[in-house]
Structures are given as C-alpha cells and as structure tokens.
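Exercise 4. Each item below gives a protein and its sequence. For each, produce the structure-token representation.

Item: XRE family transcriptional regulator (Vibrio tritonius).
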Amino acid sequence: MTNAESHLKQHIAQHLKAIRSERQLSLDAVAKLTGVSKAMLGQIEREESSPTIAKLWQIASGLDTSFSAFLGQISQEHEREETEFPDDPNMQMTTLMPYDPRVKFEMFDISLFAHHEQHSTAHALGVMETVWVIEGSLELFFDNEWHTLNPNDTARFFADQPHVYRAKTEQVRFQNLVHYT
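Answer:
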C-alpha cells in the first residue's frame, strides 16, 4: 500500500468516526442510515478496508454530508487534490473545489477509462449534479434513461435518484458540480 493510499484510508476512518461522535451515532445507526453493513463500517473505521468510490458516496449520502470531506482537507482553496481509489482503477478523481458550507457545493474533475461504468446511489433529497464533458463521450443515466454527452455538453439532474456514469469512448473526462440543499 502506498503512502497516499494509507493516508486516504486513515482520513476516511477519522472522518467517519468524527461524524459518528458528533452526532452520537452507533455503528448500527450508521448502517441503517447508509445501507452499508455494520461490519463494513467497522472495517473502514479500523482502517482494515478501503471503500470503493460508490460505497463512499453511499456513506456520505446516508449521513447527509459532502463526499469531498471524506477525501481530506485542502490547505488552500486554489490547490487541487487528486484521489485514486485502489479498488476503482478505471476512475480517477481530482477535487477542484472541496465542499464549502457557505455555498453548499463541491466540484470534481473525473476521468473514466476502459469504458468504465460507475454506479452511484441516490444522494440526499434535493441534491443536484451538473456534469460538463471536457474530453471523450459520456453516457449518463438519470430519470430512467440514458443521455449521451459529448465535449462541451452539459447535463443537470437531481442526484437524489440512482444514477450511472459510463465512458462511451475509451476515456472520458468531465467535471461534476455537486450542489447540496
């Protein structure tokens, strides 16, 4: 395991523990809120397991908190933080703007490789996403249908429903703005 992977695993564990402590939630309560098993949550907190991107979104959504908060703190607003998830080698994510409670959004630059398909569980009620394709073609599933986006195309949708991102081309790069209510 690389130092970056170890740091990410540690930060995710610490952030999950901090949320549980602040809200006085047991592992059972968090499991009910997120749909993630108590055993898996315990492994994450003990740094025995790294959640996939999809599982981390599920946890963040169930706890009604931002995704980027699990990825770490960025020391200055103009710095970017790239995150690679060992269990998701066909997806790379860079936090362009971490969650800011004053404006209630976060922004990511995401690349999918090898026609990767990334499933996302429903986020909290009212959360919206805006996607802007930079390179390649993206198939985006929301409102029970597929939408194809090419470079410079955008889509905005309520993310409080299951949704899917799929690289239609070998590689696609897009930016994703997640706006919380």
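Check: The chain has two domains: 3-70, 81-179.
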